[in-house]
Amino acid sequence: QVQLVESGGGVVQPGRSLRLSCAASGFTFSVYNMHWVRQAPGKGLEWVAVILYHGRNKNYADSVQGRFTISRDNSKDTLYLEMNSLRPEDTAVYFCARESPPNSNTWSSLLAWGQGALVTVSS
Amino acid sequence: EIVLTQSPGTLSLSPGERATLSCRASQSVKSNYLAWYQQKPGQAPRLLMYGASNRVSGIPDRFSGSGSGTDFTLTISRLEPDDFAVYYCQQYSSSPLTFGPGTKVDIK
Q: What does B38-99 look like in DSSP terms, one character per residue?
């Protein structure tokens, strides 16, 4: 079955960096667009970034543009989120999510989700 | 950026009642690229509807979606105990992709 497992979360000081990983299994990772979505404690969902299946196109939320980088390694079935210059307001559970149709050059809804990784930015 | 507004913020209903959730966009959502998600505490969101009115496989037919342009609705025809949760709309027609703030459906 489709499985997405995030890792790499933890407590980090403001201004430092952290890299999240999302290991995919149960489907052909290389043909699906992938997203990161976050949720601050007690708050709603916030879309963070998307990378198309081939890795050549990426888009970001304004709140993370220039600080976060989404990437993927299709040979390892893994999605990444490199987070730099972290701020307290980046504290959240970070979900990786997969779109529904394969081989799409436009965005779609998010059919499969991981359970999330908690990132806490605090001194 | 397309801003999504959901109303009401909280909907207090009893099992068996009908729930009507609204999602309004600040500008037209092209091709009705609007999705609905359900989220329960401590869980990841679950996709219910895509393309405004297409139900995901395995989602009960008491869930239905409608609307176009800037106004969209999720209807739950008869609430079951498992349906009490937070519901989010999301547009995926333009970047940045955005979510609404959510509607909490709780037990009256």
A: EE-TTS--EEEEETTTEEPTTS-TTEEEEEETTEEEEEESS--GGG-SEEEEEE-SSSSPEE
Contact yes or no for A62 and B47 at CB 8 A = no
Shortest alpha-carbon distance between residue A78 and chain B (Å): 19
**How many contacts, defined by CB atoms under 8 Å, are there between A and B?**
63
pLDDT tens for each residue of chain A, 123 residues long: 999 999 999 999 999 999 999 999 999 999 999 999 999 999 999 999 999 999 999 999 999 999 999 999 999 999 999 999 999 999 999 999 999 888 888 899 999 999 999 999 999
Which residues have a Cβ under 8 Å from the Cβ of A27 and sit 6 or more positions away?
A: A2, A98, A112
A17 in Cβ contact with A119 (< 8 Å): no
